[in-house]
Amino acid sequence: MRVSVVDEVVSDNLASAVRGLLFSRLGQALAVLWFPALLVRTCLSLSAGGSFHLAAYARGTALDLLVVIVVAVPISRLPSLLYPLFLMVCQVLLTCLYYGNYEHVVANGDAIIPRDLYFMLSPEFREGSGTAISNPLLFCSMLFVPIGIYFFARHRVEPRSPGLATLLSLVILPAVVAFLIPDNLNRRVWEQSNVAALVAHDALFSFFPPTRVPGEKPRDFLIEQYSKPNIVGRTIARAEPEDRYNVLLVLLEGISGTDVYRDYSTFLSKKPRIMPKYREVAKRGLSYPHTISLQRKTNRGMWSILCGQLPNLRSVFPKMDYAKRLQEELNFKCLPHHLNDAGYHSVYLQAADLNIMRKNQRLPELGFQEVYGAEWFKEPYFNTGWGPSDNHFFEKALRMVSKLQSEKKPWFLTLLTAGTHHPYKVPSEFVDMRFDHRERAVRVADYAIGAFVEGLASRGILEDTLVIITSDESFGAGRTMPKIYENWVPLVVLEPSGRVKEILTTFSLNEIHLSVLDYLALDSVDRPPAGRSIFREYAEARSLVFANAYARRIYQFTEDKQLVRCVSDFSSCEVKSYDDTTFLWDDPEGGTPLSSGATSELRGLVDWNDWGRYRLRILNEQAAVRKRKKSAPEKRDSYGSREEE
């Protein structure tokens, strides 16, 4: 009898606590604020195209709830007049943040990088992708259903607040779930985290940077690989020293190796290959199907290509933001500078506005003598939101090439498209319902590059021009598992001799800089870049390090055919063997976990490379000290020696 009474009392207290929570301001605030996060997470999980992962979903949902509790508790304590106002404002802000993260996952495969929010809030981004709503039904549901919940529950809410025990229980349960389920190396960030928590974490550690365990100093051969050139391999193609061929570098926004080299019917889905014309172009020259982009995001990829340097491998601010300072501190030159010294006229043209990523400031620092963006194009043309579509872009670019060709000096032209950037708008003649939005945009790029190459050939420009066609970064093909093929990019070279060959050696995009100098026989340039030349064959294997900022992953291919994969903070790592011919796309789950000590050298290599914000802050402080000492008046002490104030 006593047990029954106790059970009844506990049951009544529990039911009372639940009612007190559900019919309180806090319960109302939780329902209003949690609904958008729960809805967008469920939609992404159902549409991810991969197996549903319960543990990752549970961890992410628990973090969603924790964030909502942190916001809802203080709001629920506000006076009656302020409570609905603050609740609705927070609901709209969180809805916009969560839906923006949804679009980012759809476009890039993973969660927003909080440090890039400054870029996403720019007017150029808002015009290009910020106002593009690919799922209006989801956005309206996230925005208006919580408002309906508020008005429905408004007259049912009791003025009392839940007790302390209820609040503690409410916090402890999701906290325990999030703590007990560790980060899964084989699942994406958006699945097992909350974007608002990521933003708060980034803001906190901007002021209080975490103490990081330093890695071991990299071995000399690794430092040499990333700091010195290697052009001792057997030559595949090279110009004569007296030939001053033009150089045309074409960067196709976000095109992946999966768009070009793999048959969709056997790889990602049962769809036809979407870049057949690019493959036809590849058959006319040197094709490199095993090419790696060292990092995702345009300014990281361009930095690698144009300056021959590794980008930051952690998701810190890009090196391109400090282009001038880094060239001075590290004593190197970028490709436009080297070609300028050799008598070239260097020009840059992109479809998007130059204010994006501050390219109007950064590109002249890399050495370009002329820089043009969206303002160079005159309408009418189809606008993708970022600028002219790829077919219009290449039509106009061909005119610029013809103009440069009429000059008496050799030229270097870099082109960057924007049509294959989210939101993937295409002209009406390219709308084909067999393809999704991105695939339609890729088809436009494929048609445009085919027509562009034909235009170059018909004008005789290929006879004295080295043409390099690649991508600034690789598109993330899936939404459930971070894959190394998100760093896989196409690379095709058309050189004046017309050599045709498929080269299966693995190269990285930062080696284009050295390769151009090697091909043009500019052996005596000042401060040559590091790496290998794509115009040479190498017998020995080497280590390659690259990263995926969106997935927060760092990778290393070792000389003994091992693939090391780590979370960017090295809290979790694993290793497995790979095959020479399939490693770029064959990336199954699993691997042998690695201890912190086993990855110490890789961690040291990343530390050695990443001249991020904190390292530059130290440099700025040192420069300020030197300047202060230089301007300080001199004094003589009692012994006659000089002393500085």
Number of helices: 21
Q: Looking at the chains present, what oligomeric state does this protein adopt?
A: single chain
| Poorly predicted ranges | 5-20, 263-272, 634-645
Span of the ends, CA to CA? 87 Å
Largest sheet: 8 strands, mixed
What is the percent of helical residues? 40-55%
Proportion of beta-strand residues: 5-15%
Identify the strand order in the major beta sheet: 7-6-8-3-9-11-4-12
Shape: globular
Number of strands: 22
Query: What number is the mean pLDDT?
Result: 82
Q: Whole-number radius of gyration?
A: 28 Å
How would you classify the helix and strand content by structural class?
A: alpha/beta
Describe this structure in words.
The chain has 21 helices and 22 strands. The longest helix has 26 residues, at about 85-110. Residues about 5-20, about 265-270 and about 635-645 have low confidence and may be disordered. α2 (about 25-45) packs parallel to α4 (about 85-110) and α3 runs antiparallel to α8 (about 165-180). By secondary structure, the protein is of the alpha/beta class. α16 links the parallel β6 and β7. The strands form six sheets. It has an eight-stranded mixed β-sheet, with helices on both faces. Strands 16-17-18-19-20 form a five-stranded antiparallel β-sheet, with no helix packed on it. A three-stranded mixed β-sheet has the order 10-5-13, with no helix packed on it.
Describe the structure concisely for a colleague.
With 645 residues, the protein is of the alpha/beta class. The chain contains 21 helices and 22 strands.
